[in-house]
């Protein structure tokens, strides 16, 4: 029987488990604060940012939202980030990607103070993570690790294939999988758009993390019987629905679910975990910046 991994349920657990830490901070006069920064008119980004703000409200984190005109100069964005860096009520700063073309994304991510970089995009934090003494873990790979924990997915000694090499998912996921840690120790291969024979790799994998942003490009014939399949794709595809689109993963769910041992659906798999781990990182950031000790779940 294939086990469908319920990201909504695990994310709700993570949010609940943050309750004690948030209460402890508040008792000491600290309300964790997260700023989201949007400089884009991409409808998906607008949706993600408003969901992140709603999540904050639900768990008792103060949300601040800063929106810049899409034709403003890049310097306005960097200035807005500097203002948030200097604001003691803001413990986490998230600059929603992708950004408008006049902005150098790397410069934007480098401008976020490393201790407030809850995305883990700043080179200092990326370096620390790769070196194995992380300040933060990036939200999506961290969320996937939480799913592995919850569903007893053994990474130690497993053959893992990460499909995609983005800074947000592919590269950090592969890095966490090879760490000498309870949720690491996997023999990890990273495949990407120039991989010659993708299926030859995925068919050998005990764990497949699909994060290439191409709708349904991994199907059941490319998987090993019993594999754990994690679908990070959230592709908007035109459809005859109320919204005019539907969300499709990178994995063809119908054929994959008959082969996989465990599989994440889209939606309701990885997406809610990414949002939950952003809250987690914000609570950790608030604790570290204020010196109020909390137990992170
Ligand atoms: N765009 C898509 N995913 C993310 C994310 O996790 N963080 C940010 N900042 N932008 C994104």
Provide tags for this entry.
single chain, 297 residues, alpha/beta, Rossmann fold, three-stranded parallel β-sheet, 11 strands, binds guanine
What does the main sheet amount to?
6 strands, parallel
How are the strands of the biggest sheet laid out side by side? Answer: 1-11-8-7-5-6
Residue-averaged pLDDT:
98
Number of helices: 11
List unreliable stretches of 5+ residues: none
CATH homologous superfamily label of the largest domain: NAD(P)-binding Rossmann-like Domain
Radius of gyration in whole Å, from Cα? 19 Å
Task: Please characterize this protein's 3D structure.
With 297 residues, the protein is of the alpha/beta class. The chain has 2 domains: 26-114, Leucine Dehydrogenase, chain A, domain 1 (Rossmann fold, 3-Layer(aba) Sandwich); 139-271, Rossmann fold (3-Layer(aba) Sandwich), CATH 3.40.50. 39% of the residues lie in helices and 15% in strands. The strands form 3 sheets. It has a 6-stranded parallel beta sheet with strand order 1-11-8-7-5-6. The protein has a 3-stranded parallel beta sheet with strand order 3-2-4, sandwiched between helices. Strand 9 and strand 10 (245-248) form a beta hairpin. Helix 3 crosses helix 11, helix 7 (139-150) crosses helix 8 (170-178) and helix 7 (139-150) crosses helix 11. The longest helix has 21 residues, at 270-290. The radius of gyration is 19 Å and the shape is globular. The model has no long low-confidence stretch (mean pLDDT 98). The structure holds guanine. Guanine (GUN) binds at residues 94-97, 119, 139, 168, 274.
């Amino acid at each position: 029987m294939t086990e469908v991994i319920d990201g909504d349920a695990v994310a709700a657990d993570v949010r609940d488990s943050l309750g004690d830490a948030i209460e402890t901070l508040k008792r000491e006069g600290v309300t964790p604060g997260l700023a989201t920064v949007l400089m884009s008119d991409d409808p998906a980004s607008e949706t993600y940012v408003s969901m992140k703000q709603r999540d904050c409200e639900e768990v008792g984190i103060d949300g601040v939202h800063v929106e810049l005109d899409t034709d403003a100069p890049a310097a306005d964005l960097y200035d807005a980030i500097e203002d948030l860096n200097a604001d003691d009520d803001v413990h986490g700063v998230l600059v929603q990607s992708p950004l408008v073309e006049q902005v150098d994304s790397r410069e934007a991510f480098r401008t976020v103070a490393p201790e407030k970089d809850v995305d883990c995009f700043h080179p200092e934090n990326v370096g620390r993570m790769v070196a194995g003494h992380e300040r933060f873990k990036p939200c999506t790979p961290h969320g996937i690790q939480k799913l592995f924990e919850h569903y007893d997915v053994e990474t130690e000694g497993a053959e893992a294939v990460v499909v995609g090499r983005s800074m947000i998912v592919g590269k950090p996921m592969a890095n966490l999988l090879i760490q000498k840690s309870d949720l690491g120790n996997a023999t990890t291969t990273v495949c990407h758009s120039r991989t010659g024979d993708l299926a030859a790799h995925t068919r050998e994998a005990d764990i497949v993390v699909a994060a290439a942003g191409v709708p349904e490009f991994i199907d059941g014939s490319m998987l090993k019987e019993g594999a754990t399949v994690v679908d990070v794709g959230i592709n908007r595809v035109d459809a005859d629905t109320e919204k005019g689109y539907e969300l499709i993963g990178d994995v063809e769910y119908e054929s994959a679910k008959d082969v996989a041992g465990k599989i994440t659906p889209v939606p309701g798999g990885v997406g809610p975990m990414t949002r939950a781990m952003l809250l987690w990182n914000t609570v950790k950031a608030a604790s570290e910046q204020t010196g109020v000790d909390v137990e992170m779940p």
